[in-house]
UniProtKB/TrEMBL annotation:
GO terms for molecular function: acetylornithine deacetylase activity; metal ion binding. Its cofactor is Zn(2+); Co(2+). This is Selenium metabolism hydrolase. GO terms for biological process: L-arginine biosynthetic process. SUPFAM superfamilies: Bacterial exopeptidase dimerisation domain, Zn-dependent exopeptidases. Gene3D superfamilies: 3.30.70.360, Zn peptidases. It comes from the Bacteria. It holds the Pfam family Peptidase_M20. CDD domains: M20_ArgE_DapE-like (cd05649). InterPro entries: ArgE/DapE_CS, Bact_exopeptidase_dim_dom, Peptidase_M20, Peptidase_M20/DapE_YgeY, Peptidase_M20_dimer, Peptidase_M20A. Residues 183-288 form the Peptidase M20 dimerisation domain. Keywords: Cobalt, Hydrolase, Metal-binding, Zinc. The lineage of its organism: Bacteria, Pseudomonadati, Pseudomonadota, Gammaproteobacteria, Enterobacterales.
Length: 405
């Protein structure tokens, strides 16, 4: 018989721990933790996990923190990346991004929505599970993962491929405004290189200007972006030119190379091969003898480990009637006595590896809102932390009930 879920007690406990979650989140925010510099925040999370009574806490060779609650045979994971982007132009901030700010409703600071708030709620969900004796035939794995902002999904490629950890499903705690998210477009990082021949700038006809050759390519890329494939749920694929590079002997010379980076978002049904081929087929790329390639990522983690990967991050989604959606729907209705909103992310998450590469189902539910990500004056809501802590505590038993149907 399925264990009954004490929804009212879970909500009560989550509210009780609001101040603790706020304090913990502000502690994390106060520690700068951009990609590959997460060591101090990882150890701060380890301290909190041990304090609230996690059964086991490990740090893997890449530097991800893995906290376990329970000892049952069904492995469920919940994930928050705990690296952040930089602060950008400090003049755009109304408060110090690391000292942060707080009032009765919100917490401000870099990483509050994207996405250390998810970690605060997960850790205290573990505390709620322990307080209320909600352990069952499951093991809950809470992961604080690194390098996501630099290379989304790389951390979970390592967890699955090298740590040999394969949960039955994963809850991503990226910001969803406390809604259930069931997919996202994929992405890839593309480069176009165009060759040229330098000469003195006083006689440009003697050379072959690579920057001029790139000009028509940019126009054709802009037009290509308007006719990319569309999916009814995930929307249209997109592309944007995000960087431009060149080489030239001097400011008085013709450029002898030019390159651009392209951020390409892939909707359902699009492939990385197709995305490269459609750019290679552009007339201006052919005329310029452009070389189209995909970037690779080879940056060392804070532990010094290098785990190279192609910069391809697959599209993924779960269907509306998938067991992950039903699991979260059951928990949400039981806790809050209302129907949840089901939607999708605009941006990319670690789901690109968990489900996109490895086929392990992912579902999203997190505190904070997408528009706060990477923005100045980033903030999250204290009530979101409470809502999410309650959900994370209830989800494992909701899943066990789903298995017994």
């Amino acid at each position: 018989m399925a264990k009954q879920i004490p929804f009212d007690k879970i909500v009560e406990k989550a509210e009780h721990y609001k101040k603790d979650m706020t304090r913990f989140l502000r502690d994390m925010v106060a520690i700068p933790s951009e990609s590959c510099d997460e060591k101090r925040v990882i150890h701060r999370i380890k301290e909190e996990m041990e304090k609230v009574g996690f059964d086991k806490v490990d740090i893997d060779p890449m530097g991800n923190i893995l906290g376990y609650i329970g000892h049952g045979p069904h492995l469920i994971a919940m994930d928050a990346h705990i690296d952040t982007v930089g602060i950008g132009n400090i003049k755009n901030w109304e408060f110090d991004p690391y000292e942060g700010m707080e009032n009765d409703e919100i917490i401000g600071g870099r990483g509050t929505s994207d996405q250390e708030g998810g970690m605060a709620s997960m850790v205290y969900a573990g505390k709620i599970i322990k307080d209320l004796g909600l352990e069952d035939q499951y093991t809950l794995l809470v992961t604080g993962t690194v390098q996501e902002e630099d290379c989304d999904g790389l951390c979970w490629q390592y967890i699955i491929e090298q740590d040999k950890i394969k949960p039955e499903f994963v809850v991503s705690t990226e910001p969803t405004d406390c809604q259930i998210y069931r997919g996202q477009r994929g992405r890839m990082e593309i480069r176009i290189d165009v060759p040229g021949i330098s000469c003195h700038g006083s006689a440009p006809e003697r050379g072959d200007n690579a920057i001029f050759k790139m000009g028509p390519i940019l126009g054709e890329l802009q037009q290509l972006g308007k006719r990319l494939a569309t999916d009814e749920f995930l929307g249209q694929g997109t592309l944007t030119v995000s960087e431009i590079f060149y080489t030239s002997p001097s400011r008085c010379a013709v450029a002898d190379s030019c390159a651009v980076s392209i951020d390409r978002r892939l909707t359902w049904g699009e492939t990385w091969e197709g995305a490269l081929d459609e750019i290679r087929a552009l007339p201006a790329v052919k005329a310029a003898k452009g070389v189209v390639s995909m970037y690779t990522y080879e940056r060392a983690s804070w532990t010094g480990l290098v785990y190279p990967t192609e910069c391809y991050f697959p599209t993924w989604k779960v269907e509306e009637d998938h067991f992950t959606v039903k699991t979260l729907d059951r928990a949400f209705r039981g806790l809050f006595n209302k129907e949840p909103v089901v939607d999708k992310w605009t941006f990319s998450t670690n789901g690109v590896s968990i489900m996109g590469r490895h086929g392990i189902p992912v579902i999203g539910f997190g505190p904070g809102k997408e528009p706060e990500a990477h923005a100045p004056n980033e903030k999250t809501w204290k009530d979101h932390l409470v809502t999410c802590a309650a959900m994370y505590a209830a989800i494992p038993l909701s899943y066990m009930a789903e298995l017994k149907k």
